[in-house]
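Annex B, item 7. Sequence and structure tokens for protein A, then protein B.
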Amino acid sequence: MNMNEEEKMKAGKIYDPNDDVLVVKREKAHILCRHYNSTDEHMVQERRRILSLLLPGMADSAVLMGPIFFDYGTNTTIGKNSFANFNFTVLDCAPVTIGDDVYIGPNVSLYTPVHPLLAEERRCYRREDGILTDKEYAKPIVIEKDCWIAGGVTILGGVRIGEGSVIGAGSVVTKDIPPHSLAYGNPCRVVRTIDGNDSIYRKKELFE
């Protein structure tokens, strides 16, 4: 079966990012992001209107502080009661799935695109119609429910972060993180399992 460039992109195949359809969809998303970023937090209805166009897969109870930056938006799903702080960047060439009750700190980036390692395969080339383009493919990202992604984290394509996990500030996540894990570093590594001993109610200094 012949696939168009958008179908190839979502399926993780090599695709042409300067395909006419993809260019139009990116431009639409970038315009909507600029409009959202020009609004104030009290402009709730206008922000909801913009997000309904940019992120039709976002739950009504989710909150994005802004500024936000999405490549497509329509390839991203965000669950109920999830929250993203300032400068949330999502290059959603492949599907990005964010579960319910996920907290995302400022300056977090989710990158699904993958570029060739060999320079000769990464260089731009000219299509038959004269348009310059290049070769790339993309891998999905999944953040399961109840995760906390701290500030400055970068998550690369192909990664799944398991339910209830916490990713420490400044981490670069290149591999899957199992559920209920505390993980941090560059590259991000699991430090330990999160359990009842981590309850804030065990920290007396927080209540005295």
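Protein B:
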Amino acid sequence: MKEPLGNTRDIARELARKYSTMTHDELDTLESILVPMKFAKGQKILSEGEVCQSIYYIDRGLIRQFYYKHGKEVTEHIGDDHSIFMCIESLFKEEPTRLQVEAIEQSVIYALPKAELEKVALHNVNIQILYRKILEESLILSQIHADLVRFETAQDRYKKMCKLMPQVVLRAPLVFIASYLQMTPETLSRVRASTLLD
């Protein structure tokens, strides 16, 4: 499942560019803890009952986080290229997760193990900033999704998703998009048809 691939230096640079400026030494340190992983389409990245021990960065690919409710799959998050995902409660409580994560496309992912990240963050202020900004971004995205399903009409939910996550809308199967937006696939088809007519 885990095979060496890609360039960890490029990924360290990308993360630094996105979240924090870094010295040459800090880039070296960040690069040293990155764990490259490759997943086939449909492969599980994290299973229910496992403890999430890392923050994950998607270099390229598409993933979804989901759980089961009354025997039905509910999609909670869909992530695409150059985005972060984690099971935040499991990560910080160090308890088994109720979520599952799977690759929707073949995906190249880099893990940032939390224990290593926290260790290096103690001595590197810019890595500390990176860690904090990643967590802030994750919380904001959770809030955006919660507000979307709480306050918006089905039509507005879909329109907002098109604006915020255009690649996901293009690439993810409709059944997962519908679940993420908390509507039936039939409702989503109607919404998409009427959006095209707008």
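Comment on protein B: DSSP finds nine helices and eight strands in the chain.
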